[in-house]
């Protein structure tokens, strides 16, 4: 086969799904108007779901997972991109319904791509990845809802994970006081190095919620969902806002309307997958300007493509701290 390269592929079998490395060629790639030589990818929680089969993330079989990648355009019939352009992709069903980043080449729609910020390396964009880009979308949403540093602290749930780690670093640099909620209290020094002022055990927020609790924070970034999100809402101060961007504890929301109608709290939904280009560009521009790259380096570890299946198991078991960069 001409011009073959390695790809990590998941396939459906009678016994469930299996993951293996395959040699494929550009002829095997899906349709698109831009072909990219992929240099880096990452492992997000959603990638863990796709690779382990713990949720029905993959909807077309076989599939090359990897919802993020960074690389260089090799060929393009899209007006916005030319060979040599450095690009980043997050979401748009890539790694779910369209071949993703765990291969040396990708062919996608140019409308899904963003030009890589000049001040960030390809590896740094993947240290950010969908998790960090989602964190930035969440911070922007809190700002647009009128939550400012003087209003009080912001609680970040799932603080040791990718969204949580980047959220803490961003909020701290922007002048917010950050409370980090984590199930891994041994990570206290790591979380404080990112800028968290206070660490609370996730057990304080993961139990059965009450309609209203003591007013504790002006806002929140929640990647956990379920009872945790309900408890976060119940303790949000009058006029505060909560950005909801994940479901690590569950998709349900066993809350009451009390925080909304008695305290005027806003619940802000954060979608990273189909966010329109202006929103994406704003988020990446802000990441380039507002994220402390030393802190980004401290939260990132680098692995090879061969390490990805094991990393997927680890991220599902809550054993991954911060961000994983995959050198493709």
Description of the molecule:
The protein has 328 residues and is of the alpha/beta class. It has 2 domains: 4-116 and 297-327, Medium-chain alcohol dehydrogenases, catalytic domain (Quinone Oxidoreductase, Chain A, domain 1), CATH 3.90.180.10; 130-269, Rossmann fold (3-Layer(aba) Sandwich). The chain contains 10 helices and 15 strands. The chain has helices at residues 45-52, 122-144, 162-173, 188-194, 203-206, 226-234, 258-262, 277-290, 293-299, 308-316; strands at 4-13, 16-25, 34-42, 68-76, 86-90, 105-108, 113-115, 154-156, 178-182, 198-201, 217-222, 236-244, 266-269, 300-304, 323-327. Helix 1 (45-52) crosses helix 10, helix 2 packs across helix 3 (162-173) and helix 2 (122-144) crosses helix 8 (277-290).
Task: Give the structure's gist in a few sentences.
The protein contains ten helices and 15 strands. The chain has about 325 residues and is of the alpha/beta class.
User: Can you count the beta strands?
Assistant: 15
CATH architecture annotation name of the largest domain: Alpha-Beta Complex
Please identify the top-level CATH class of the largest domain: Alpha Beta
**Mean pLDDT over the residues:** 96
């Amino acid at each position: 086969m001409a011009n073959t390269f390695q790809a990590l592929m998941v396939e459906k079998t009678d016994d469930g799904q299996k993951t293996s490395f395959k040699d494929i060629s550009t002829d095997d790639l899906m349709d698109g108007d831009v072909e990219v030589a992929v240099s880096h990818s990452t492992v997000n929680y959603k990638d863990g779901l796709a690779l382990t089969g713990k949720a029905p993330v993959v909807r077309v079989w076989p599939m090359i997972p990897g919802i993020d990648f960074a690389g260089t355009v090799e060929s393009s019939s899209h007006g916005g991109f030319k060979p040599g352009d450095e690009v980043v992709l997050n979401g748009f069903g890539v790694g779910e319904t369209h071949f993703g980043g765990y291969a040396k080449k990708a062919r996608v729609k140019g409308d899904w791509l963003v030009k890589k910020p000049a001040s960030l390396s390809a590896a740094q964009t993947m240290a950010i990845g969908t998790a960090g880009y989602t964190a930035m979308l969440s911070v922007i949403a809190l700002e647009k809802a009128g939550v400012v540093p003087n209003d009080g602290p912001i609680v970040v749930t799932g603080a040791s994970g990718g969204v949580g780690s980047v959220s803490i670093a961003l909020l701290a640099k922007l002048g917010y006081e950050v409370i980090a909620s984590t199930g891994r209290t041994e990570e206290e020094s790591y979380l404080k190095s990112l800028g968290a002022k206070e660490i609370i055990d996730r057990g304080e927020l993961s139990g059965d919620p009450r309609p209203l609790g003591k007013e504790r924070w002006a806002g929140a970034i929640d990647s956990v969902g379920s009872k945790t999100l309900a408890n976060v809402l119940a303790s949000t101060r009058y006029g505060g806002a909560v950005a909801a961007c994940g479901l690590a504890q569950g998709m349900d929301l066993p809350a009451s309307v009390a925080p909304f109608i008695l305290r005027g709290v806003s619940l802000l939904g954060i979608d990273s997958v189909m966010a329109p280009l202006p929103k994406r560009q704003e988020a990446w521009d802000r990441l380039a300007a507002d994220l402390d790259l030393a802190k980004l380096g401290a939260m990132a570890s680098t692995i090879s493509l061969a390490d990805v299946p094991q990393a997927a198991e680890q991220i599902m078991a809550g054993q991954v701290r911060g961000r994983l960069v995959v050198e493709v």
